[in-house]
Amino acid sequence: MSQESPVSIDPAEVAAFREAVLSKLTYSVGKDPEHAFDHDWFEAIALAARDRIVDPWMDHTRRIYRGNQKRVYYLSLEFLIGRLLFDSLSNLGLLDVARQALADLDVDLDRIRQLEPDAALGNGGLGRLAACFMESMATLGVAAHGYGIRYEHGLFRQAIVDGWQHEQTETWLDFGNPWEFERAEVTYKIGFGGGVTNLPDDPKGERQHWEPADVVRSIAYDTPVVGWRGRAVNTLRLWRARAESDLHLERFNAGDHVGAVLDEARAESISRVLYPADSTEAGQQLRLRQEYFFVSSSLQDLIRRFMKQNGDLRELPQYVSIQLNDTHPAIAVAELMRLMVDVHGLTWDEAWTATVGTLSYTNHTLLPEALETWSVGLMEHLLPRHMQIIYLINAYHIDALRAKDLHDFELLRAVSLIQEDNGRRVRMGNLAFIGSHSINGVSGLHTDLMRVTVFKHLHQLYPDRINNKTNGITFRRWLYQSNPRLTRMLVDAIGPEVLDEPETRLLQLESFADKPSFRKQFVEQRREAKVHLANLVRERIGVVLDPDALFDVQVKRIHEYKRQLLNLLHTVALYQAMRAEPHIDWVPRVKIFAGKAAASYHSAKLIIKLANDIARTVNNDPTLRGMLKVAFLPNYNVSLAEAIIPAADLSEQISTAGYEASGTSNMKFALNGALTIGTLDGANVEMSEQIGEEHMFIFGMSARQVEARKAAGEFNAQPWLDASPRLNEVLQAIHRGAFSPDDPNRYKGLIDGLIAHDTFFVCADFDDYWDAQRKVAAYWRSPKLWWRSAVLNTARAGWFSSDRTIREYARDIWKALD
Ligand code: 26V
């Protein structure tokens, strides 16, 4: 996927980079060019690029220190980064230089690029958002530090065997990681368990001494994050767990070799693996250990930095903002209190004011099963001091309400930090809310729903705390790096300034939507991306795609609320219609699916199998003459997304309204000129406002209608089946095993369940979805209209830049950047 160089590149720069790579290859990798494997070249190039980052990194760090600039700490258990080679080269303005330098050495940079493993330290949208935010914060010059865990194993690799998902261990560190710097000297002690004793000089019992039973060590690994044009470079600091070496050695020397090794393994297991959090596996002890481990390390680290420069923790909110990415780091509320009160001697009230002033929290889902709670028993066992602090926060919080004459039992129960029914549990959402001055949702609709659902009562008590920050995406990765052809067209059409100010300049593209020559070019670049994707699909799964067909794409985690099943039912309906009338002039269509299901999420895994069963049947049916193809691409990750998104004509964003907090792939597709078929859910709402509903295909029940139906308990799908012969036929075919002749009963449970209790209103929305899909096909038949809309999607997607989102966080929540 090479791109021609835009402007003439300076031969001296090329020569310098070539020499730098050769020097790295020789002295760091230890190879000569004749014997170097591709991986050796990758490492040499990455190290040469990294060298270019170090000076601006140190400059930036010094500048922040000297200016005593307000720092923003982004605490996230997930950073779904993907590959970094093109990210670094492109943001440093070195991409063309590097490509030429390597070509001089007979090495193809675009081939080498494929060798870098994806850093998949996240599950999906939440983790990818954190990665986009890190890039935007560096671009905008926010003095930001990301804090997380350096998982040895990221998200599992998905293999598809006989149509079923199999999970395999992911090993991104096998060949080392050239981007990181180990900071062996940056290390903290993290305690677990043990007991708490009263301090004699504290009659209220607010200060305590905690003597942990176990201690684990954290070690920092820093990855520089380069902003656009290398203007600022921030740090992503990830923690690795190590056994506390003294204890370990003592046991070892005392002859307890096995015990010592077990201790070590137990300590180090904390940073071993990313939890596939979209599942019920969350809630286990190791997960709570991970949360506390990274929160405590990060808070100790930022307090040390703060004390060095400022010294009075009561002033923390003036100099520091800490953003909690979901409730995963919510134990920070108690840990910050502990550090301030027990360790640094602030009074409870001083500490509380500083804590609330410093912390803010982002909510990413309303799904009740996704809201974190921890059993009081487990908390008492692992974090006894924190449990005390949480009780005390709760007591003061409830006292304050009573003092305001609020005695409504229902209200007090709802806002308590402790859930009393079915075993006492700590509600991390309420803890994060009470301990933060700002609580934000990630799209307008999601934020509105937060105010009337999960945080209804807390919102009544603190009406100014909830605010909205609609998500965004970084255009550097999701346009410039992943779609160089379209980027080139934009630069040619509206000038190179578009790269620096896409939010405003992209709008100038609107007038090009009416130019036939521009639309023709737009079609051509799309076709090239489709040819590229078709080759990839043929190589990976052996399915041959027609690049002139309509590429209809749904790629995201597999979840019932995202309704991949609805898309599959449409696929079957289309298949049946084509078979019934094969001589009609159908719009040739390719249905592309990709996404991982949590290992323990059986219905999601069955949906993957169904997609593959349908694919096999459809792709091998000669009556269709290739009019319909279905492809399920294994192992969806950031790199695969980068190949798929530029090639999509139609983007499927079809979640049950009210369930998708925002979505971010919806924005990536629109930016790259795909048209969206979607419900009015999450940020699709803002998309329809920015882009215009007439350039999208909106269908289905609204969030209000869904809510009304839920309230009335109308989950039975029989009425919808009775009203829709088409739906009936689709469900019957799947039910009787038309797509699973090897096991005709495979989908009986799935279909019976769907009819008896259609939790996500798949059947209720089916006919409307079918009609919207017919509009899609008809529109595709009018290329002028279709491609005009496609260009307008790109032109009007500027608002979805994560730079806009970060500016809003900086202005409203962090009070940084002015
Ligand atoms: C977690 C769980 C855990 C228990 C079982 C079910 C379940 C389902 C979903 C989740 C995801 C939780 C958080 C998350 O990833 N939210 C996503 O955040 C994105 C960035 O804000 C947003 O675009 C997505 O709409 C939202 O789903």
From TrEMBL:
Pfam families, alphabetized: Phosphorylase
Its EC number(s): 2.4.1.1
Family: Belongs to the glycogen phosphorylase family.
Job of this protein: Phosphorylase is an important allosteric enzyme in carbohydrate metabolism. Enzymes from different sources differ in their regulatory mechanisms and in their natural substrates. However, all known phosphorylases share catalytic and structural properties.
The entry's keywords: Allosteric enzyme, Carbohydrate metabolism, Glycosyltransferase, Pyridoxal phosphate, Transferase
Gene Ontology biological process: glycogen catabolic process
Organism of derivation: Pseudomonas matsuisoli
Gene3D superfamilies: Glycogen Phosphorylase B
Cofactors (names): pyridoxal 5'-phosphate
GO molecular function terms noted in the UniProt entry: glycogen phosphorylase activity; pyridoxal phosphate binding
Class in the EC hierarchy, top level: transferase
Single GO cellular component term: cytoplasm
Catalytic activity from the UniProt record: [(1->4)-alpha-D-glucosyl](n) + phosphate = [(1->4)-alpha-D-glucosyl](n-1) + alpha-D-glucose 1-phosphate
Modified residues (N6-(pyridoxal phosphate)lysine): 668
InterPro entries: Glycg_phsphrylas, Glyco_trans_35, Pyridoxal_P_attach_site
The protein's name in its UniProt record: Alpha-1,4 glucan phosphorylase
